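To fix ideas, we close by showing one paired sequence and structure record:
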Amino acid sequence: MNWIIRPKLICRWRSEFENYQGTSFPGSGKAKLTKEESEVSSLKKELAEARMERDILKKQFTSFPRALGDLPVHKKSHKYVSY
């Protein structure tokens, strides 16, 4: 099979290499990112994780009693502690 590499493709490869240096041909579907793009991507991941943690904590705290006066002293007693 004959493969033809067009000059336009070689020019594109050259410009990608000049812009991205060692990451210009990463393969395996990995994105070609500059330092700034990589940092932005990392910060977006951190933000998504922080939002997820916040949402989990919000859900947990809504299930807790709202005031300490609503907590029973122990199971056998029907008296409630008021602070």
